Amino acid sequence: MFKSMYNWIDERLDITPMWRDIADHEVPEHVNPAHHFSAFVYCFGGLTFFITVIQILSGMFLTMYYVPDIINAYYSVDYLQHQVAFGAIVRGMHHWGASLVIVMMFLHTLRVFFTGSYKAPREMNWIVGMLIFFVMLGLGFTGYLLPWDNKAYYATKVGLEIAGSVPYLGDYIKELMNGGTIVGAQTLTRFFAIHVFFLPGALLALLAGHFIMIRKQGISGPL
Amino acid sequence: MDHNKQQDTAHAPAQRKEMTRRQFLSYTLGGAGAFMAGGAILPMIRFAVDPILQKKEKGNFVKVIEESKVTSEPTEVKFKVHQVDGWYESDPKLSAWIAKGDDGKIFALSPVCKHLGCTVSWAAESPTEYHCPCHGARYTKDGKTLAVAPKSLDEYEVKLDNGWVYLGPIEPNTRA
Amino acid sequence: MAHKHDPNEKIVYVGDSRIRKRAKSNVSPPDYTAFPGKSEAFIPNFLLKEWMVGVVVLVGFLVLVIAEPAPLGYPADPLNSSFIPMPDWYFLFLYQLLKYPYASGDYIVLGILGLSGIPFIALLLAPFLDTGKERRFYRRPIASSLMLVSLAAIAYLTWVSWDHYQHELAKNGVIPEHIEREIKNEESIEKGLGRWVPGKEKIPAMVEAEDVAFTETMTQAACITCHGSELEGGVGPALRGIGDARSKEELFDAIMNGKGEGMPPFKGTLTDDQIEKVATWLSKQKAAAAE
Question: Is position C285 within any domain?
């Protein structure tokens, strides 16, 4: 059944080479934790991606209950966490996953740095990786506001004050992110849009670039 | 353009100043692409930056305290002001520290710390200073910054009328 | 997938689909035959090993998620002056850095651009700053030591910031809201009042609203300026339903001698008889009686 379906598609699109390229490419011994235990440091990139997938999925499901409105945001979060079955787990995954993804990404960055893997010819992939890092921090910052509790509100206020102290452009950056002069209704909708559409869009594009480059250049050789 | 002519163009050295057919098409494609991108995105950009370009409303004055009750020791007053935040209108309670200065003038300080926006209070650490619990910023009674914060505390515009103190919009400190 | 041959199927062979080795390429070889040791196919051999690690991480993650509910405090209140702001932990080092005198105040430009902006840009452009061929970290002393110093600084700043926060909490006697909320919620459930959601407390209706103790005495004594004109609460707590929480004696004492910082003593302002009547009336304010 699956085989005939596969063949039907393959006859028309010739997908076998693509699939075989992904499946059959050789992975060297020095990154394989089954051969060298120390090679687990090479797993952090894959784990970052795994947690990112969890974040995207749990985030998509959270929006089924969440509303980005200053009156109702807090109560929608309260409701989905305490009244919806498994709400505590789904919100917990998104909350703790946000921290874990930063940890994993940090470890991955350190691995790449200390193994010198960012050197020629992989400079571009390092830059894309750093951009992913910044996008993730942006996701963390914007996501923190969404429950609209005091912690969220005041952390955002402080964060925006920091952005506002950038020379020359600070006030504009701050007002643009605020969506006005105060942290309020328009800040919340703005952060929601950035958190749910703009940054994930950028993230997916950067991730695609990251993976295509890895596949094209291969994993850096052993030290 | 007939076939012969095209041949000519291809063979002739680049002395003719007219652009080739390929160049013309490329430029047109680029122009059309730029128009498509710009036409689609420009309205969205203007849409997104609207808050910066909107006219700021002038705040009204709010009656807060009797003039006779203001002493040289700062006291905190809380008051309500009508605030419009997009579609959301509210009457948030604000607060101010009101005192009579050494020059005998009544002034009101905003308790929002100029460092990173926490809330300061009078005589919390030292009896003659404002103190911010976040990063330990300190201010004099006039709101002049002593430590950590880059600027002095903002002031409310003060209006006196008929024995009452009215507070208006927030402005940069004039006393420090 | 198409692994087994079926004589009735037309199978198009595309040859060895591993990426062809280009004659001139400065990109590393796509297969690792050039390197010593055992390489293996990505799917399923290698991916299985990576997914074993993934399974372990997921189990640990789910245990954390189930054991530790995501924190949720009280609804945002822009006028809460006692709240101690705290960014998420991975921003703490930056938050702490900008507290130091040479990174704040008149030096804020140095703090923002010099101490935060330049290191981030340097990290972004690392491949163009560290251009040597050597990859081992101990053969790249400058790059490695800069990174180690930054790591130590980040760890230290994060710790200082967290420590300072804990210190502030202890000094001000503040229980973080998400913890306090859980405690109140449990209390509320124990009392059989159901789940406690801050800001959604049901304030019971007023009992005997026509009583002179309320309509005259409490209005004259300006109770309503703090406790709300309908006793729904304001600067002071709501008084509707207070009878469930306080006895008549406690109420009498609170009115007579004041309570905490906010509640002034009314000894002298009101007669003992008036206070007695107000306390009696307040003690009747029970949720059950209001229904």
Answer: yes
Touching subunits of A (3+ CB pairs, under 8 Å) are: B, C
- Asked whether C75 and A67 are in contact (CB, 8 A), the reply is no
Which tens digits make up the pLDDT trace of A95-129?
999 999 999 999 999 999 999 999 989 999 999 99
Q: Count Cβ atoms below 10 Å from residue C288 Cβ, excluding itself.
A: 10
What ipTM does this complex have?
A: 0.94
Shortest CA distance from A162: residue in chain B: B116
- Alpha-carbon span B166 to B156, nearest angstrom: 9
Three-class SS of residue B56?
Answer: coil
User: Are residues C140 and C65 part of one domain?
Assistant: yes
Could you report the per-residue pLDDT of C155-200, keeping only the tens digit for each? 999 999 999 999 988 876 778 889 989 988 898 888 777 888 888 7
CB contact under 8 A, C27 and A99: no
- Contact residues, chain A, for C195 at CB < 8 Å: 82
Peptide bond into B13 cis (omega under 30): no
Query: Per mean pLDDT, which range of A96-110, C127-141, C253-267 is the poorest?
Result: C253-267
Residue A25 CB: number of other CB atoms within 10 A?
Answer: 21
CATH assignment of the domain containing C92 = 1.10.287.980
Chosen domain end from C122, C144, C177: C177
In a domain, C226, yes or no: yes
Which residues form the domain of C158? 43-177
CA B75 to chain CA centroid, nearest Å = 27
Percent of chain B with pLDDT over 70: 85
Dihedral sign for Cα atoms in the order B104, B105, B110, B114: negative
What CATH number is attached to the domain comprising C286?
A: 1.10.760.10
Contact A161 B86 (CB under 8 A): no
**pLDDT in the model for residue C22:** 46
Count of helices and strands (H, E) across chain B = 2, 12
